[in-house]
Request: fold
Amino acid sequence: MAKNPWAAPRPSLRFIHVWRRNLLVWRKLAIPSMLGNLADPLLYMFGLGYGLGRMLEDVGGMSYIAFLAAGVVCSSTMMSASFEAMYSAFSRMHMQKTWDAILNAPLTLDDVLFGELAWAASKSFLSGSAVLIVAAVLGLIPSPWALAVIPLIFLTGLAFAGLGLIMTALSPSYDFFMYYFTLCVTPMMLLCGVFFPLAELPQPAQWLAQLLPLTHAVALARPLVNGELPPSWLIHIAVLAAYAGMSAYIALALTRRRLLQ
Amino acid sequence: MNSRINAPLAASGLRKSYGGNEVVCGVDLALRPGECFGLLGPNGAGKTTTLRLCLGLTDPDAGHIEALGHAVPAAARVARQRIGVVPQFDNLDPDFTIRENLRVFGRYFDIADSVLEARIPGLLEFAGLTSRADTRIQTLSGGMKRRLTLARALINDPELLFLDEPTTGLDPQARHVIWERLRNLLKQGKTLLLTTHFMEEAERLCSRVAIMDHGRIIAEGEPQSLITQHVEPHVVEVYGETAPQWADDFGRSRSERCEGTGETMFCYVHDPAPLVGDLDGRGGLRYLHRRANLEDVFLKLTGRDLRD
Ligand SMILES: Nc1ncnc2c1ncn2[C@@H]1O[C@H](COP(=O)(O)OP(=O)(O)OP(=O)(O)O)[C@@H](O)[C@H]1O
Ligand SMILES: [Mg+2]
Reply:
């Protein structure tokens, strides 16, 4: 008679309390946390952008650093969502037993998971937006269309938050997350058009890249900052939305299986 | 059946298995309003699992549960709105101060911030933590954490409290403070469901207890009547290398029941005079004569063997 973990999600608005709890913790360390989150992407942008950029005429019709900016917005969103949904959420679930405490109140695991999902997406949204703002300040963002990247950042964050929470639901310890980083995150950094155009890859790698969410985020973000809407925009959004929806559902089912038996 | 209608918590025929191993095997519970009900049992008896079932945190394989008039697990969320929980292991939020712990937990119940701010000073007082309200919880002693956990469980002014081993790991001072707080809550008319390994705690606080072993309730009633029902009124404990020898030579034949663990013998009798007289005359063996208590009932019913 035990409930089917794959039953439809039934979250309530109380997920907001979980989100707000995490926000409250984050606020205590907001500035160091934001700076920490910015350091990595900016190092990539300046190190590679200026260093490598000197050797390259232009890439895809723009300076290399401008090319890089849109990619790094997406990759830093991915990184931030993944870290939050894995290391931080795992601490709350497994080490600190924060979720157990919340479940003694009138919240369900569905609420907790949706709260975590929304939070990881929000946090990555801040990281991605911060990179976008820095790039705009540096004059690397020529078009106001770049504003359309802002919701895209959130959607991208949601997709990677869901994937991260799947890992969290399966993970016996922090070490487990290294596999995901080595086998998924790092390859995506290299294969999805962050550092160089997808077209430079051999054909099979390009096909593979089409299956990865980061590819679609970059494929949308880069034209947008240059004021163009790519013809395949709907496909990119659909793929990201499918990743977000499916990963949230799978993460919820696996977490229910882990904690509600 | 009638007593169940007003029961703050009523469960019948509860069953729960983990991987083919049944850990709750047909448990019935019916709490009376305003009482402290003790659930006693050795490690692994199924106490925490029973509480988790009653809170709707895991689904039973069979059985019915009603908490504060709401079917569990179906309406567990509504029931938990009026229930307070002190879990077996502290899960205070280490990212927050004492005050923030109370505030954030209160928000989970959809309680307005203004109501919370009015309620928190009283709870800090109750926990004896007013002067430390703005310190992080890492700096608290075990007793302080337990008191804060209890205060946190009261943030929604619950009618029914689940207390899973509230005093395990605390020193006697801290334990007495918790007991005093729990009596206070009983005076306010709250109903308590308490699990514990301390028989003394159960005898002091509980109007009724159930002894649970291997997932079953094997005895239930008022502590005093369980004692008269299950064990002889006097116990003579005899200590020393030669205690088992003494039991074989003398003690066993003069006791209704005589049990030993290592170099200690426990003799259960209605009339302790012959045993005490013999021990006094003989000298050389240390002994203690006392009245039988709930622990004697517990050990008789669940045995003296280790459980883990
Ligand atoms: N999620 C679970 N998965 C598998 N087995 C479990 C799970 N939870 C509890 N058990 C098993 O169920 C049995 C009863 O556990 P429970 O925690 O209810 O006992 P308890 O009476 O609370 O014990 P203690 O006094 O040690 O807290 C134990 O054998 C335990 O190992
Ligand atoms: Mg337990």
Remarks:
- DSSP finds ten helices and no strands in chain A.
- Residues B 47-48, 88, 164 surround magnesium ion (ligand 2) (CB under 6 Å).
- The radius of gyration of chain A is 19 Å.
